[in-house]
Design brief:
Layout lengths: L7 H12 L15 E5 L6 E6 L2 E12 L10 E8 L5 H8 L7 H17 L9 E3 L3 E13 L4 H15 L1 E2 L2 E4 L2 E4 L8 E2 L6 E9 L17 E4 L3 H6 L2 E8 L4 E7 L6 H39 L53
Parallel strand pairs: 4-6
Antiparallel strand pairs: 1-2, 2-3, 3-6, 5-6, 7-10, 8-9, 11-12, 11-13, 13-14
GO molecular function: mRNA 3'-UTR AU-rich region binding
Subcellular location: Cytoplasm; Nucleus
Family: Belongs to the RNase PH family.
Amino acid sequence: MGAETFSSPEKAFAVAALASGARVDGRRPPDGRRVAITLSPTTPGAATASFGATVATASVSVRATPPRAGRPTEGTLAVSVSPSPAASDAAAAAALARRPASGGAATSDAVRLVEGALRGSRALDTEALCIVAGSLVWAVTVDVTVLADAGNAGDVATAAAVAAVLGARRPDVSVRGGVATIHTPEEREGVPLPVAHVPFAVTYALFADPGGGGGGGGGGGGGPLVAVDPTAQEEAAADGTLSVTMNAHGEVCGLVKSGGLAVPPAVVVACASAAGERVLTLTRAAQRAVDAAAAGAAAAVAGSGGGSVARTKVRPVAAHPLAATRPVLVDRQQPLPSRGGGRGGGNAAAATGGTS
């Protein structure tokens, strides 16, 4: 849950609005906020993502290191997520009190989502990060900073982290006789990280339906009210959240449920089905970011007069892992649960609508 506070009348108003098919910020329950993803054309592994007013930036660093004990042929992945002092009122208060701006449960949830997307789903192939078995591997570190938290920081942090990994480069390396030679960027162009697929997280805020006993997940209400991409106030007012990590092929890579609200399996299926459309929006935004960064890098090289031979080599966008992605949504003909009551605007079935 977010650090924002919500009074009882405000929560009652938000829930009533959801039940009627509206939200306090003017969106419909199935509508996400506007997505923007950018990659730096000059700094590989630097990315920024925003959903509405929520903004996060990520950077990726890669270094050669001995492998972990018991994992002689696998590289490592480390993830950190931290809020900027200006990200929220809670972070600002922590900065003024000279306390670490940990972000509490919200940051823990964000770390769990980012790690689930990159490590849990095996989006980053750690075995392909091996340089010399038992001797040397690549250690990848992803640092995410939430610059502004207006809700759903976990999804935004995941988008920024995934984009940063897509744009990151490791040094090229030559191995002869079991001895590795790591080349500088001036000698050889960097190599993209081994990305197997491109997952994103989609989070839903869950509210007990006051009209039908939705707090138990069943009864006459048919399930909780659902709102995708919640704002900070909606997070504070929600009785629970459900995060679906999915790639553009419609493959569910992970599910994270928080809060004490019971959720019927049919609602989980409906949310996972609807997440495909949001993931497609994010995938397209990431593709545009990859294309723009490649074009910007090429323009920078051309403007500098070419530079070294290594710097004039621009890897074709078509060869990038993201460019090979063929977005295929889950079966949109799958029957979805219906409350059948007439107030369907904010329930699980409404989660199957479009995203912005």
